[in-house]
Amino acid sequence: MSRPEQPASGSSTPPVVPSIPLNAEPVRQDGDGSVGSLVKEVTTHVSTLVRAEVELAKTELTAEVKKGVQGSVFFVVAGVVALFSLFWFFFAVAEAFNLIWPTQRWAGFAVTFVIMLIVAGVAGLLGYLKVRNIRKPERTIESARESVEVLKRGRADAATTVARRDAA
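Above: the chain's sequence. Below: its structure in token form.
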């Protein structure tokens, strides 16, 4: 099976999911085919449907996990910068206690601390903006709901057919 095409970075279009080809349905008359062949056919179609659902879910989740990893990189950068800025903060506090010296070296360290906090804030904001765009796999959920409805409808149709046959 070919790999799904990935959209360009930052694109809001969903990835293209490769389709799993189904065999063409032969035209069948009522009562055509044995129960065994019908069960085999249903099993094949359900298996193909499940594989298609899994492929769709895998493709959608891979794209969303990729966004999450990209966003978490910004959180890691923010954390590292914040940790390194703590060194400058404590160094500035230590120098602030040294105010008896007229040079007041602590102010330079305090400015460095503020600049590093701004960098950490910007990195944290960028990480938040990346992570908040993660969405649930809506196409997979909708497709699974439709499949369940079709299978329920098929079971109900089969039950009415059996009831009619038993009544006859």
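The chain has a mean pLDDT of 76.
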